Amino acid sequence: MLLLSAALLGSAAAAAASAPQGTLVPQGRYLMLDARIAGTPVRALLDSAAEMTLLDPAFASRAHLIAGESVTGHGSGREAFRARLVAGVTIDALGLHLTKQAVAIADLGDVGRRLVGARLDVILGREIFDAARITVDIAGLRIAVVPRGHEPPGVRLPLAQEHGTDTLPVRIEDGSPVQAAFDLGNGRGVLIGARYAEQRNMLRDGRMVREEHGGGLGGEVRRAHFTLRSIEIAGLRLHAVPASIDAEPTASDANLGLDVLRNFRITVDFAQHSIWLAPRR
Questions:
Q1: What is the helix, strand, coil percentage profile of the chain, to 5?
Q2: How do 236-246 and 190-193 pair as beta strands?
Q3: Dmax of the chain from CA atoms?
Q4: DSSP β-ladder status, 122-124 and 96-105
Q5: What is the set of domains in the chain, with CATH numbers?
Q6: What is the spatial distance between Cα 10 and Cα 116, in angstroms, rounded to a whole number?
Q7: Measuring CA to CA, which residue among 98, 109, 112, 104 is closest to residue 32?
Q8: How far apart are alpha carbons 60 and 123 in whole angstroms?
Q9: Cα separation values, 246 from 191, 193, 200, 264, Å
Q10: 53: which of 103, 138, 190, 277 fits an S-S bond (Cβ 3.0–4.6 Å)?
Q11: Cα 160 vs. chain centroid, distance in angstroms?
Q12: How many other CB atoms are found less than 10 A from the CB of residue 271?
């Protein structure tokens, strides 16, 4: 079984002009990064929670990649989807040259059309985060590989893996610490796992709840949308944070998206199971 990101959204055109290395390109609510897959240039959606890089079949054809083993994938949509694996692929991004990578080919057309209205060629997954220590400034639209020889600025938090996604400790509405996915592919605020929301009685405690549409690979879903009174991350308390329910059985208790993570300058090192968060204010 292939488990993929909880929030696979975005749009890119392969013919877009290249951005300078280390520049994040905003596309709607999401972040794009110029890369090369099997030597073919592409503007890819950046998704730290995707277990592997995903290619649309049309792009895979341009890159002369031939699909192999068929697997089942799970995104944030209502249904599983089919993908085919390709081994031995090179990924170039941020000055990194990664060889012998396994990627998956899956139809990204629905995600682009339904959520963004344009084509999505590639979702660039966690491979670059596994390979190096990386600093990300969402508000400043900057991303770079940094050396491991010094302690980065900010509060250091441990990372733990849940269902192939790296998570960090947070505190929600003064509850006990829970693990929250670090998800640069989530273009919104916070996703709350349905089981955790039930434990905390979040949808039946008098707060306003409305329905919204969401979901990535696997099709559209409807989610309960509400407001968290507060969330505390690395000592910074944020108030009135938009949140939605993630009903997937593999969902973490929480998932931190760009609207929350943009409050920090981030340094992340998956290999060393650490993340440093320096508040921007």
A1: 10, 45, 40
A2: parallel
A3: 55
A4: unpaired
A5: 2-145 (2.40.70.10), 155-279 (2.40.70.10)
A6: 6
A7: 112
A8: 12
A9: 6, 5, 14, 24
A10: 103
A11: 16
A12: 12
Sorted by sequence, the CB contacts under 8 Å of residue 122 that are 6+ apart come out as 12, 35, 37, 42, 43, 44, 45, 53, 54, 55, 56, 59
d(CA 131, CA 46): 15
For the record, the structure tokens of 208 come out as 């306003």
Token pair of 254, please?
A: 């929480």
Residue carrying the six token digits 């300078």: 20
- Please answer whether residues 35 and 42 qualify as being in contact, where contact means their C-beta atoms are separated by less than 8 angstroms: yes
Please tell me whether the overall predicted TM-score, pTM, comes out greater than 0.70 for this model: yes
> What is the per-residue pLDDT across 188-243, written as a single tens digit (0 to 9) for each?
999 999 999 999 999 999 999 999 866 556 556 788 999 999 999 999 999 999 99
Rounded CA gap, 112 and 39, in Å?
23
